[in-house]
## 1
Amino acid sequence: MFPIQIRYTDAVREIVEMTVKATQNLSQLQESQVEYGTAPKEAVYQEDNIVLYHYAPLVEKPFKIPLLIIYALVNRPYMVDLQENRSLVRSLLKLGIDIYLIDWGYPQRNDRWLTIEDHVNEYISNCVEAVCQRHDLEQINLLGICQGGTLTLCYAALYPEKVKNLITMVAPVDFHVPDGLLNVWSGYSYGPESMNIDAMVDAQGNIPGDFMNFGFLMLKPFQLNVEKYLGLTDILDDEAKLINFLRMEKWIFDSPDQAGETFREFLKDFYQENKLIKDEIYIGEKQVQLENITMPVLNVYAEQDHLVPPACSIPLEKYVGTEDYSVLSFPVGHIGMYVSSKVQKSLPPAIAEWLKARG
Amino acid sequence: MTEKDWSAQTSEMVRSWSEAQRTMLAAWMDMLQGSSQKTPSFAEMAQEWQKLATQSLQAWSAATDPIIRTTAEQFIASQGLMLRFVDFTAKAWETTAPKIKSGEDWQAAIADTMEQLRQSWLGLPAQAEAITEDMDTLWELYLDQWRAFGQPWESVWNKAPGLLGRTAVGESAALFELSDSFQQAYQQTLGRLAGSPNLGIAREFISRLEQGFDAFMSLNLANIEYQAVMADIWDEAFKQFGEDLASLVEKDEKIESVRELILLWTRGAEQTFLKAFQTERYTLTQGKLLSATMHYRISQRRILEEFLESFDLPTRSEVDEAHRRIYELRKEVKALKKQVKRLETVN
């Protein structure tokens, strides 16, 4: 028997009904309903494009050492506060952690010349200093996420005296792993022949956010471009789920351009030449040596991460100089780390407990 | 227009569009049930539907917020893909049904159909390859891009030495003729009055064009190579789909909805594509296309900057250089401010 048993009329009816339903339901929504990053916060420091935010505490007496969250440059940081019931920030606030976050903003053409040194030695460094001054402290806690985690490792290696405790989340350290398609395409095996970074930056200046999006979507071409929208039909009658879906869509496609020289350095030095674990990264004139990371480290990774495979994050233990190293993993993907309800139940308490034990 | 007006307009549009969809379905079903008119093919229906959806979306755009509209566009695009896919399976059914009835091997029939469809969808590499055999055609193709822009200037620059020579011996009319030629060329291209060009620029410009042509050639060749690799991957994906269908038969399972059909296809295709994406062949071919695209873009910019410089207009390179100097100055100022603050603290 031929396995496809679909009548033409049923097929057309199925598609038309789905489309009509989608249009009717989507047309009822307004942009204002797709809120994100709603935890109250105030800007406490600004420099060029970047803004340092302080979130309003949810407890009377927050934990004495604040936590500064440093997100990746490739996406917007409100993923950590996407919606009220899926917010790492809110969960940590409720557990008494005092939270700051660096918003990198949207690089413009005049930011094309910004380097990794600017991000580490200036922006991160100045934000840490601003937080220290506000709390009259010499050191604070840092949480670096994804590429932000890699930059945070560089900062902590250069200025260990400023970091009380360090948390890295889905952060790549060893970029030469065959597990990740992103690593393969960026030049893990074949170097510049697989991705001519110099030509990309020389031609475009800043790397457009749309270009980055296209690359990320191609890592799972059918799942992210077809199946995801098929799944939309299951939630069309549930306004709350539909808004959640639209919220994720907003974040996924709200990609900033990448400052040209930062992109050049990150892709060539970290992805293609894997210099970080070889102690060959220089920020300004200072050598980044991961063994200088002697403060307590908590490394969190996602077991099904296709963007930063576990093999990229797990090796951190081999390279840092701390004697207090902990690792935590969850059976989720890269984004699931922030939005999975199961992770949201266990990750924030784990972080809070770990920080407070090392207060 | 008030929010209520927009909302009312949107609701009316949605109602009309939904009604149009239902009418189309009803009309099509009437036709299937024995109307004297020619039954439209599934592909024709899919095209009509896609057109209707796109028109409605454009009418909707004024009142719709960006993220919702983008999501709707994505959804409609995926629906269009689904209709194309149903068309594909309808064709497969047309081919296999008689063979099943007559007891022939339906799997072989499916394989044939897939090959035909693959060739019709992916015929591009073969067509494109034919073009590259003729360098003259390629050069024409490339020049066509610049001809519309550059031709008026080419003729002016060719005339310029002669006209200036006549001016030098007192023939003032020649100068006016030169000026008129420039005006006309400018009006035809950038549309503004320009100053006198440098002599010899034509030679440099041709050199840039030649470099641009090299980049254009490389891009075309890289694109053809990439399309060929993609065609092989699609081929594997179609084969995988056939195997997945065969596996359903073995398990005595059926596909009874478009959604199940699409999922069967996408899951197999995803695995096939991801496996291929990891290979050296794909990675290097993609890298080559990316590099060629970027170099082409760089060469295009150099040619365009040649024109812009002629008319005292700032170029991308100049603006980038200005930004770089501002960036360096800003760094210096920041460093100096930090130093001053440190000294103030010490004192």
Note: The domain at 37-207+257-357 of chain A is CATH 3.40.50.1820 (Rossmann fold).
## 2
Amino acid sequence: MNPLPPENEIAQASASLKKLRDTLNTVLFGQDHLVSMVIIGLVSRGHILLEGLPGLGKTQLAKGLSRALELDFKRVQFTPDLLPGDITGNPILQELSPGQRQFVFQPGPLFANLVLADEINRASPKTQSALLEAMQEGNVTVMGEGHRLPQPFFVVATQNPIELEGTYPLPEAQLDRFLFKLSVHKNDARTLQQIISSREIGVDPVIDRVCSREALASFLALARRIFLPEVVAHYIARLVEASHPGLSKAATGVKFGASPRAALALAAAAKSRALFEGRSNASFEDVRAVALPVLEHRIILDYTARLDGRTTASMVSDLLEEIPAQSLSVPKTLQEAKLP
Amino acid sequence: MVDDQKFWRHRGLRLRLKFNLACLLFPFLTLLPFWCTFIAVWTLLCRRWGGDIAPIGDVFYLGLLLLAIFSYGRGRKFFLTEPQALARLDECNHLHNALTAAALGMIPWPRPLPAPVRDGFSWNLKTLCVPLLLSICILTLGLQLPTGRSPGWMGGPKEMPTSVTLAESWLDSLKEQDVIEPEALGEFQEQLDQLKNQKPEDWFKHSSMEAGDSLRQRLFESVQSMDQNLAQMEKAFDNLQNLPQPASPQSLQALSEDMQKALKGLESGRLPLNRETLSQLKNMDPSKLSQLSREQMEKLSKAFQKSGGACKGILGKDAKCGLNLKMDAGGMALCQKPGNGGITRGRGDAPLFFDENQTQLGTTRTEKLENEDLSRATLGDTMGVSQGEHKIDPSKFKGPAEAGLISGTGAGGEAVWRDETTPAERETLQKFFQ
């Protein structure tokens, strides 16, 4: 067991992360929860899939994040004709000296700390798999030669839920590599008014640096040292197990449940949320808070459930309702009291 | 810091006690009604068949103990541990698992909450109370439900049937008076002893009850018979005393025959008089009665009173009712006279019933029936009815004479005493008026 981080470090990290949230809130109005979850996802060393309609600020969020954290930022607009080499980089024949030529690897846009993979579902599966290999392994292989990606390495991918013709939906196995799948919702009128008042089209907002890259690295290390109590780990395990068909009432209509990677992702995200909230231990509440973005894209419903209008989001909500935090066999002489 | 730890550990302990008690109570209360049903059935059977109830209480408590042990064995695997209790408090009080981490020494114990600490459990009163009340009801039924036995069901009946106790008291009374031949009483006493010596469980058997009733009835009838014979004897003796001197031989003969008849009844009845009294009466010669001194007369009178008193003690105040005296179901002597009839039927004297007092017709005044217009009287009409004692001049009595239904003839001016109805007719009339 890793020794617990000192309280002052946790408090300092929490303050920095909250400051980062506040800063990003000046870029993306009315999406406080989304921003928080993106930060938590980053602290968990996870990659994030944002799903939403165009123009809701997904790209601005990624840009703002990189600026606030002083990260190298690259953006790749995925198209059907995008080739793996276009994102990983290609060897280029260079003339080092007269008569002497050599292939020199020219890094692609993946070689950055923060990569925005815009409309990832429009790229061919070949290109998608190249990206997903980089996400999983943290390095790319070109012509048999491996190239380590810079650390930290985050991918924020976006996909559009409309205009699905000619797209290549991500296979479930590849979706599983994203820590979070977050939905970007449309803004209400008040938020829109705020956007209109404070922003101008074609002008990027000014974002101050919140913390250095080193500080971010320390936050990532700190998140790993957050204590995960056994009861919380047990809760995570039971939640993931119950997502499989036949193992809970909520899992009715589920074709495939969440993987063990989902359990690991839940634990990491819960720890990161605890750090974000300034606590040195993860809790049931943390697990519940991150369960939806972690599990939503990892559970596959069968066609009957889809015909019934069920979604994975509603299934996860049902799962959280059904599975108690503690697996206690409560005798009938007691009953669950209503708690505020 | 230490106080915080103490506070939360104490709260955890309280939660554990509550939860673990509930775990213990659930199987206990589930099985309790079944156990109580068994005990109640057992109790009912003991009460019904006269078994001993005392060991049931011990078995009941032993069963409760075993039930508690079983419940402990069954419930202990669900018992709440301290980490579980603290995690529960974490969850219910939104402490973000601070107690769990603190218990492991990871972080300091959190400060006690200003609001009451919640544990998220409340007692399910329905599950708790229903089996408990059900068990109490079942036990109460087992103890209180009537089983058809007398209240003294424990160890059999305590009292003998009324008929036996009554017959015993009558026999005791007759023995004290010392007017009956002991050998005659011995026969009744032997039968009584046989009934008394039965097992208490057999006292109330049908055959025993019938035997007891029969004994009581026979004893009653014997006493009644003796009382009538004594009354006849006493009457004859009174008549003998009042005979004018010198008495006619016919009168003396008639009185002597009456006395002999009564004496024969007293001697040969089921309850004969004792030998001393009997010999006194036998030695009495009606012709020499006038020669008896006053002391001898008083002695004889006392003998009659003593013997009669013994009978009156048994037959009661209605002993003078004669053949109409019957014994009711409770063994009490009851003078059965014809009833009034009608919707308000019940005991009462019928009109025209010959009695000492004038017939009460339910009015406030005493009336006398008489036919005013005797000229229109037809054969068989009642010419008149008079009440009260017959004013017979004994001096003019010439003695009884047998002439059909006429028990006593007289010369001119003498009243004629006639029995209008036979005993069978009288009984039929009684039944009709009842």
Note: Chain A has 13 helices and twelve strands.
## 3
Amino acid sequence: MKRRVFLLLAFLLALVPLGLLSDAPAWGEWDAEYFQKVLGYVPEGIRHIGSSIHLPILLSDYQLRGVSEVAGYYLSAFVGVALLFGLYYTIYLLVKRRS
Amino acid sequence: MHIPDGFLSPETSIATYAVAVPLLIVGFKRLKRNLNEETLPLISALSALSFVIMMFNIPIPGGTSAHAIGAVAIAILFGPWVAFVAISLVLFIQAVVFGDGGISTWAANALGMGFVGSFVGYYVFRALKNFKFAPFVAGYLGIVASALFIGIVLGVQPYFWSENGKPLYFPFGLGVTLPAMVGVHLLIGTAEGILTQIVYKLVGQKSLEEVLA
């Protein structure tokens, strides 16, 4: 039962570059240039936050600078999956230690 | 469906955090209760599955795209509270590591994709329990409900926060956001429905009861 879910996960991981087929952004997830183009201005809050929040995003837009789109997307998928497994394992250890 | 930073007013961010944090505390307690050697791999794998499925951007007519979420599959297997926490963790990693969605908007995204989707999906599934395609319908309606919530949160921004007639944050009102968000997800609902049905079939009710017993 568990094995089948892991196989599904592996299957989807292998196919993940298919997610790159659409280069259209999701509805409502536009960047500042979109608003400039459509409205003729960028709403204050969106412009302001664009220049104030500067987190060091390592794999921005699921891509790594200097590697191909497909490689970056694969890498992002594996990193995300690994982080989630690590996160849950950490939570599990913390829960176990306390009980 | 990931609202980026800057699209919501600070007031909206604070309000959504104020609602989401207490709910997350409840959810974490449920997760702790359900987390053991048997369930750990499955909950981790289903959360990873949610992360990966969100990377499959499906083109939608009209120059946009959308993706399934995978919340309802977790909700019908482990309950809506666990699903809400799981999706919130996925969204956190997406925001911090991949710049997908925002930090100030994390709570709003978690409430929409996590809480609303999980609970609607869970109760639809419960209501249709004996119907063969209950997981599909639950997944379908769950993601449409999530889209409705996100559409409302985005769409109210220009009514409350404008200056000299110019919106300060997300500029389009409910007349635009609701048809767009709900419309897109009436199509994407099919993907969420199929995913939910497949995962439910793969895990199987019997073996799940063994795990949770």
Note: Chain A touches chain B through 56 residues (CB under 8 Å).
## 4
Amino acid sequence: MALANLETTLERLQTTRSIEDLQVWAHELRDGLGVTHVLYHTGNMKGEQVGAFTYDLDWVRRYIEKGYSQYDPVVLGAIRRFTPMDWKTLDWSSPQARVIMREAMEAGVGNQGWSVPIWGPAGEFAVFTINHTATDADWQSFLEARKKDILLISHLVHQQAKRIFSRETDTPSSELSPREKEALMHLSQGMSRQEVADMLKISENTLRAYIDSARHKLGAMNVTHAVALALAKGVIVSHGALPKY
Amino acid sequence: MIRYIYADELSREPVLQNSMFRDRAAQFKERLDWDVSVDDRGWETDEYDELNPLYLIWQSPDGRHAGSMRALPTLGRTMVNEHFRHLTDGVTISSPLIWECTRFCLAPGASPVVAAGLLLGCLEAAIRFGVEQAVGVFDARMPRIYGRIGHSPEVIGTSGEGRNAISVGIWTVSEETRAEICRRSGITLEELAGWFDASFNAVIPEVRAAA
């Protein structure tokens, strides 16, 4: 998917207001990425299982009824690490895992998967998976091109799911430190990163870490989007309207 | 060789585990006199070792630790955000694209290639997983050591002076830096990729669900 389309899809993500919306959105993302399936699930939001996925509903019901998550190498791997996992590198040798894999394939799940464990600040846990039907070589080049996007998307989906569940309509802006707001404000005035870094007397790489942190906290997909959100939410005001002393 | 081992798998390697935590005590307690705790076993550990971090460890041919560092995602609890925010302009650094790398440790007498290998190991993992930056905490002598290797962090802030100085700094990940450190250290890209694959792309031992 071209970058512009991905941005549109991620903007759409922020308009979702229910888990059903998120489910519809998951299909849009799948079609946009041109993959077989996408799946987001988390087990501990107010004690309920929450998911948004393109998998066959009967397969998901069966998976839950049979308690497959206890044996699923993807889940077992994700709860013990923070680094993304290629399904190929997981241990599918147990009899239960083999059953899960076989039944998943029968239900139309593709042969390749990349799962991102998501650990939130409150210790909450979720998994985001891109599933595809591809040769190892094609899958490798897909991942090379996409793994950074997938990492960003996985956390944006999780943030949105949390927002839906807590009925929050806004991102709390209090998390942003004065320094981050300052950086976003200068960027909103059209200054280059180098100019902002000079202004704040920090290196460009430090600035990058600060604005990427601000981007994440605002639930934005890139810096331009972060600036737009910060302005829209009143986290920053456009400096041009204020007197400069 | 570099091995990537999550904390919960480290006890399967008792020699490596024991020598790493003892070398950490030797470096951070004895040599640097940091305010760290050492237990009855002579191990230096802190609260972040409890969060199942990923260790990058250079293992000597005799199976012992020659150098290591500890990686954690910045979306969870990190040392920089919990203890050093006064050095980052009050900014909580948290993004899926940024890791925290701390407890950079070298065993006494470790060969210079070990330090380069650890930085390379961190770069390799970051590149493979899509991570762009790493933030770290280090003592005053480290920027020089990192500089010699060819990958100096940019210091964000420093507290204390002289040999007691502690800094927070940031490394930016790039394939060019990886190539440059490889060239300087004599570690090849193939070797590096091989170490990563041996840790992450091998079949993991079966684990049982907690549930």
Note: Residues 204-211 of chain B have pLDDT under 50 and may be disordered.
